[in-house]
Amino acid sequence: MTNEVKTTRNLKVIEQSGYRYQATPTVMLKGKWLSEFGFDIGTHVKVECEDGRLIITKEETIEEIVQPVLCVAEGKAGYGKKKSASRQRRERR
Fold first, then answer.
1. Residue 21 pLDDT
2. 1-4 long-range contacts, Cβ below 8 Å, gap at least 24?
3. What residues of the chain score a pLDDT lower than 50?
């Protein structure tokens, strides 16, 4: 058996709760293989979307504001508090 590094990964787009608890498509990349390709913890990346492809590129310098990827409660006061039954009914309409 050789120690070849696998250069292709097959993943599945999964559902996670997003803004206002709406189902949001999610792609999760994790594993030591990321470090093998230079994507160490704390590395900034750029994601480009074109023609059904996601192109993830390591960024050496970041000159613009970087937004966290797992930002779910964007601007929602009271995040994490249980909603009343009447509020849940109103939001379903």
1. 93
2. none
3. 74
So what's the pLDDT on residue 60? 78
Length of the chain: 93
48 contacts 58 by C-beta, under 8 angstroms: no
For residue 78 the two structure tokens come to 């009271």
Q: Judge contact between 29 and 11, C-beta under 8 A.
A: yes
List, in order, residues 6 or more apart from 11 with CB less than 8 Å away: 27, 28, 29
Residue 91: strand, helix, or coil:
helix
Token pair in block for residue 74: 């964007």
Q: Which residues contact 91 (CB under 8 A, 6 or more apart)?
A: 20, 83
The beta-carbon contacts of 45-50 under 8 Å, at least 24 apart in sequence, are none
Q: What percent of the chain has pLDDT over 70?
A: 73
